[in-house]
């Protein structure tokens, strides 16, 4: 590939076609490392020179390096390829698109760095996709989480708590339970933790045989919040928000209108006499501060 802009352009096209979609098939010749799980959603695509990284929501990152004349092709499902299929080094297929890499010098995968997932941090939790998984053990591990400042959003991806939850499920589970993603574990009652674990197991098991994740059948696309930022919530009509979470800046989608359990509130400046004496709601504090400033202003101003 002589054009230095060719790969960035290809990466942009791949993002448009693949981001937010589940993989129905994955193939890589001479792959070094674990393959993403079937149904894993493409979460990000990064480009560095001749290197391309594809991030899946199950924590797998695929790194591919191109030879000088290597290239990525994008086809509609069923469309005729420009080169022979036997020459393909990497194939990633979703319900609508097929991304094909020809001329890759290497293809390897690794898991995103997460200190909570490091083997030295403790043994893995139960696999909630199994019908014999000890869900009470998952509840106990979450209730006794070793970081009291951790959010429920962080703990759901910690494989020491339970295995089987990727980023798509994380967002969908918290929406289904009405829990704010930044809620601290220590501030959630055991009943909420139990609800989260049971919902997680139910969603994961219901999608074991499905290439496309469906957690909200009543919503177009089958997902309640994931990749639906800017859309109206099907439950309360509020707007679905998007933010990045953790060191890996993984996207978190949620509805601020109905996911209010454990919602953190901004701490007030207690040096402000208005904040100490008046209604502690932030809107009330702002209103009363403006009221006193306007009352003390000279006449005519």
Explain what you see.
The structure is a single chain. This protein has three domains: 6-111, MutM-like, N-terminal (N-terminal domain of MutM-like DNA repair proteins, Alpha-Beta Barrel), CATH 3.20.190.10; 129-255, Helicase, Ruva Protein, domain 3, CATH 1.10.8.50; 268-301, no CATH class. The protein has seven helices and eight strands, in the order H-E-E-E-E-E-E-H-H-H-H-E-E-H-H. The longest helix is centred in the middle third of the chain and has 17 residues, at 190-206. Helix 2 (135-143) crosses helix 5 and helix 4 (167-177) crosses helix 5. A six-stranded antiparallel beta sheet has the order 1-5-6-4-3-2, covered by helices on one side. The chain has 301 residues and is an alpha+beta fold.
List keywords for this structure.
301 residues, N-terminal domain of MutM-like DNA repair proteins, Helicase, Ruva Protein, domain 3, six-stranded antiparallel beta sheet, 7 helices, disordered C terminus
Topology summary:
Layout: H1 6-18, E1 25-28, E2 42-48, E3 51-56, E4 60-76, E5 88-93, E6 97-111, H2 135-143, H3 152-156, H4 167-177, H5 190-206, E7 240-245, E8 250-255, H6 273-277, H7 282-296
Antiparallel strand pairs: 1-5, 2-3, 3-4, 4-6, 5-6, 7-8
């Amino acid at each position: 590939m002589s054009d230095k802009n060719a790969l960035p352009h290809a990466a942009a096209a791949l993002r448009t076609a693949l981001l937010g979609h589940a993989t129905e098939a994955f193939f890589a010749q001479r792959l070094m490392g674990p393959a993403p799980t079937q149904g894993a959603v493409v979460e990000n695509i990064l480009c560095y020179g001749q290197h391309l990284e594809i991030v899946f929501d199950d924590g797998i990152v695929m790194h591919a390096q191109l030879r000088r004349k290597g290239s990525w092709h994008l086809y509609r499902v069923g469309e005729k390829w420009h080169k022979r299929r036997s020459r393909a080094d990497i194939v990633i297929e979703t319900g609508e698109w097929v991304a094909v890499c020809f001329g890759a010098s290497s293809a390897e995968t690794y898991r995103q760095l997460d200190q909570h997932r490091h083997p030295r941090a403790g043994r893995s939790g139960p696999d909630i996709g199994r019908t014999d998984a000890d869900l009470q053990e998952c509840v106990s591990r979450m209730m006794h989480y070793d970081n009291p400042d951790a959010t429920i959003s962080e703990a759901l991806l910690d494989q020491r708590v339970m295995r089987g939850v990727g980023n798509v499920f994380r967002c969908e589970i918290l929406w289904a339970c009405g829990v704010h993603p930044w809620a601290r574990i220590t501030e959630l009652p055991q009943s909420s933790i139990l609800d989260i674990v049971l919902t997680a197991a139910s969603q994961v098991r219901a999608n074991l045989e499905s290439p496309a994740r469906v957690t909200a059948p009543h919503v177009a696309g089958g997902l309640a919040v994931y990749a639906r930022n800017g859309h109206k919530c099907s439950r309360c009509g509020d707007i679905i928000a998007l933010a990045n979470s953790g060191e890996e800046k993984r996207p978190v989608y949620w509805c601020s209108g109905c996911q209010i359990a454990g919602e953190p509130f901004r701490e007030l400046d207690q040096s402000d006499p208005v904040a100490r004496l008046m209604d502690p709601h932030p809107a009330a504090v702002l209103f009363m501060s403006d009221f006193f400033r306007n009352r003390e202003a000279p006449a005519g101003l």
